[in-house]
TrEMBL record, chain A:
One of its GO terms (molecular function) is branched-chain amino acid transmembrane transporter activity. The chain crosses the membrane at residues 17-37, 43-61, 68-88, 94-116, 172-200, 221-239, 293-310. This is ABC transporter permease. Its main location: membrane. It is a multi-pass membrane protein. InterPro entries: ABC_transp_permease, LivM-like. It comes from Sinorhizobium saheli. Keywords: Cell membrane, Membrane, Transmembrane, Transmembrane helix. It is found in: Cell membrane. GO terms for cellular component: plasma membrane.
From TrEMBL, chain B:
This is ABC transporter ATP-binding protein. Gene3D superfamilies: P-loop containing nucleotide triphosphate hydrolases (3.40.50.300). It comes from the Bacteria. It comes from Sinorhizobium saheli. One of its GO terms (cellular component) is plasma membrane. The keyword Nucleotidyltransferase does not apply. Residues 5-246 form the ABC transporter domain. Pfam families: ABC_tran (PF00005), BCA_ABC_TP_C (PF12399). Keywords: ATP-binding, Nucleotide-binding, Transport.
């Protein structure tokens, strides 16, 4: 049998620090944003929650190469689960998050068992269809979900029994940032694990992975469930922070936006998900305040530019620039 | 124990096209067998039937007395059958070391670990280094595979397959596309393979076949035309006709 390396070598110490790096960056950036934009905290919180959602999508698209257009399914299930728990069972926010994660994971598991047997266009179409079915179901099941009106008046108790969610949104922001930092740490650990390496192998060549004996389908289902749990957490946070859940959590446009944000930033590295989300949300916010009807124009233009000039996303800008400089 | 691989009455058709016709043969432990035949004869298809990529229409595959015909691809790898790809199939964005880490982690049953580092097993890292030394690719350890020359990629292809420690190794045209100046590296690597390993080599280059194989099977239109020692095969009239015929096209 194999024995793990003892954790004393300097190289290992350095690499375990690098595991913390994305989380540390996010904490630093969030602290700065908190000080600079104290009156935009609700918008900042939306960005942070979206980052969690896009990071979860990076696990499946960026790491394992599974492209879907139905990631909102898990987000929506997490949102409804957290909303229902808060309304009917317990207002505890952490419990709500846990339930949201479970709801997202269960949804991912059930849908993944079918979805992940398919590829390409079929996979895209089935993932869209499943989310549509969920939206219709949420709209029909008025007794549970409030139908088209959604769940309203969701309130949560103070965080850890200590911090009351305030009107300005300070606690909500800090709460969301902490969850994001935790999620990033988990993802970073996962990426450097044997499981993470296997995912990158599947993304590189599924046929070769099978030829070295990897149960490819099982690994895909596992990462899909993990990503689903994280997406569920993002949905649960939204429900808790906004106090509302409506059937638009299952909107097709949400799944599509997530894909766009990830492609903009660059799939495969967590930073890409963070940068893409930040850019998308800020540009959307600014452009929509200038022209509320044609903001998509700006986003579309940006996406075309990135896809042609930086096919690996904004995250690859520094390497691309040095490449170009070296050539001239 | 140690009977090697026995194939009985293996048949496969794609629609109306029969690409394997009642193939029966054995690959004893430690054997060095070459499978030759014209393009489209069904050599790769035969290899894919053995590894479980394709399901046979009928027939039996036994490894050391066990019927492995119903096992899926991953299970057959664990049972001990591994194959290199005719067209290089590597993890292009990963370094050579990472490429080799994957099959070893898989073999040791480690790829489900989420909370441990992929490079955290000292003996696995040592085994990777050893494997690279064996194939003389240790200087490429940290390069992404996509940056390697084709001949070097073929060596990594071989290393990746050896890393699963198979009992039966199938090499599908291991030197195809490799410049002749580098193909001796591959021949040498094959000659150094452990002697208890049973090797089936699919190859067009007769020079290479003579160097490594002591038994040759000639496949034509999905059926075995003949089987024998290299001398018997080259002096066979039908084989000569086939190869001379092919050379004229
Ligand atoms: N998946 C498939 N579906 C239909 N026909 C196939 C399939 N795979 C292979 N064939 C056909 O089966 C025949 C045998 O193909 P195979 O690849 O096994 O030949 P080969 O002996 O390996 O040839 P080469 O020397 O060119 O590699 C060919 O006629 C090929 O077109
Ligand atoms: Mg072939």
């Amino acid at each position: 049998m194999t024995t793990p390396v003892l954790s004393s070598s300097p190289r290992r110490a350095a690499t375990s620090l690098s595991v913390l790096l994305p989380s540390v960056c996010v904490l630093a950036g969030a602290a700065l944003a908190f000080l600079m934009f104290p009156y935009d905290l609700s918008f900042l919180t939306r960005i942070v929650i979206m980052m969690i959602f896009v990071v979860s999508f990076d696990l499946i698209l960026g790491q394992a190469g599974i492209a879907t257009l139905g990631h909102a399914a898990m987000y929506g299930c997490g949102a409804y689960a957290a909303g229902l728990i808060a309304l009917h069972l317990s207002p505890d926010p952490i419990l709500g998050l846990a339930i949201g994660a479970v709801a997202g994971a269960v949804m991912a598991w059930i849908s993944g068992l079918i979805l992940l047997r398919t590829h390409g266009i079929t996979l895209l179409m089935i993932s869209i269809a499943m989310t549509m079915v969920l939206q219709e179901a949420a709209s029909q099941a008025r007794w549970l979900t409030g139908g088209a009106d959604g769940l309203a008046g969701i309130t949560v108790s103070p965080l850890l029994g200590l911090f009351e969610f305030d009107f300005v949104g300070q606690v909500a922001f800090i709460y969301s940032v902490s969850v994001l930092a935790g999620v990033l740490l988990l993802c970073q650990i996962l990426i450097s694990s044997p499981f993470g390496l296997a995912l990158r192998g599947i993304e590189g060549s599924a046929s070769r992975m099978r030829a070295i004996g990897t149960p490819v389908y099982r690994r895909k289902v596992t990462v899909y469930v993990i990503a689903g749990a994280i997406a569920g957490i993002a949905g649960a946070l939204t429900a808790q922070v906004t106090g509302l859940v409506g059937i638009e959590v299952f909107n097709f446009s949400l799944s599509a936006d997530v894909m766009v944000m990830l492609i903009l930033g660059g799939a495969g590295r967590l930073y890409g998900a963070l940068i893409g989300t930040l850019l998308f949300m800020v540009v959307h916010h600014l452009a929509a305040s200038v022209d509320p009807f044609n903001w998509l124009f700006v986003i579309g233009f940006m996406l075309i530019l990135v896809v042609f000039v930086l096919p690996k996303g904004l995250i690859s800008l520094p390497t691309r620039v040095t490449q170009l400089l070296r050539r001239t | 124990m140690g009977d090697g691989l026995a194939i009985v009455g293996l048949t496969k058709s794609f629609g109306g096209l029969q690409v394997a016709r009642d193939l029966t043969l054995t690959l004893p432990q430690g054997s060095r067998t070459a499978l030759i035949g014209p393009n489209g004869a069904g050599k790769t298809t035969f290899a894919n039937l053995l590894t479980g990529v394709l399901k046979p229409t009928s027939g039996k595959i036994m490894l050391d007395g066990q019927d492995i015909g119903s096992l899926n691809e991953a299970a057959r790898v664990r049972a001990g059958i591994a194959k290199t790809f005719q067209i290089t199939n590597l993890f292009r964005d990963l370094s050579v070391r990472e490429n080799l880490r994957l099959p070893i982690l898989e073999r040791e049953g480690c790829t489900h670990h989420i909370f441990r580092r992929a490079d955290g097993w000292r003996d696995i890292e040592a085994e990777i280094t050893e494997l690279m030394l064996e194939l003389n690719i240790q200087s490429l350890a940290d390069k992404p595979v996509r940056d390697l020359a084709y001949g070097q990629q073929r060596l990594v292809e071989l290393a990746l397959t050896l890393a699963v420690k198979p009992k039966v190794l199938i090499l599908d045209e291991p030197a195809a596309g490799v410049p002749s100046t580098e193909s001796h590296l591959i021949v040498e690597a094959i000659k150094r393979l452990p002697s208890d390993l049973s090797v089936l080599i699919i190859e067009h280059d007769m020079q290479l076949v003579f160097e490594v194989a002591n038994r040759i099977i000639v496949l034509v239109n999905g059926a075995i035309l003949m089987e024998g020692t290299p001398d018997e095969v080259v002096t066979n009239d039908r084989v000569r006709e086939l190869y001379l015929g092919a050379a004229h096209v």
